[in-house]
Amino acid sequence: xxxxxxxxxxxxxxxxxxxxxxxxxIKAVYDSSSLPELYNKIPIGLYIAFAxxxxxxxxxxxxxxxxxxxxxxxxxxGTFQNGYLLLxxxxxxxxxxTIQLTITxxxxxxxxxxxxxxxxxxxxRFHHYAxxxxxxxxxxxxxxxxxxxxxxFPLDTSAVFFEVSNGKLLGQDLLINNNEMDxxxxxxxxxxxxxxxxxxxxxxxxxxxNE
Length: 211
Fold this sequence. Notes:
By secondary structure, this protein is mainly beta.
């Protein structure tokens, strides 16, 4: 009888341990303070739920203790390195800003998946600092990106390229020389480099000499 109880106790202990190690679900999140709208290196974290109700988290911004060296994470876009997702913007756009992570570990012998949906660039627009440009002075072409997160950020020439109907482009500056007297206005177009369907158009009046 004593031997039977010992075996039963051992089986219950092993069953409980096995249940504790069985992962039922994994949720992936990203650190929104890292500005994924602009930057391509994004901290991510995992919530790992076990069959016994325990939830453990990964180190980094979630400050958990389920170490990354115990987990293999393979994204379907970009690359993953020790808690950081390195984005490939062009493939991210083609996947509607959703990245699927395939995850395996000692506790997840069969792979599981978790999705991360990142902020989407919905549109771009010109936001002029002045209502007209003056001949002989640089006029900064200020462009903003409007994201699904509700955030609005300025975009520079690393993200957009410009075309103008008149004048000269110097980086993100537009210049009309003093001797270009016949130019009354300039049409400008900004196009998002990673998705050329996103464009912004504007017409900028040129000040007359007596204004």
